Write the structure tokens for this entry.
Amino acid sequence: MASLSGDDERAVVLLNDAVLFALGGEHLDALSSICPTIYAMRDDIDARGLKPSERVETIDYDRLVELIMEEYDQTITV
């Protein structure tokens, strides 16, 4: 996602099994080097019984919609 302010701020939202990246380690380090802001869906974290790294902000669906509709001007789904 790219920021509305145009300052090339990027973020990633981890969904479903991708929340495994939120645990930390080399994969989170690599992801953080590309996108300094990382969110993970709380429902997906809880469903898997995980404890995410402090570098990852857990969010709910309302916050996800807010990010997509109001805070970022591009969304890329992979």
In short: Strands lie at 2-3, 11-14, 37-41, 56-59, 72-74.
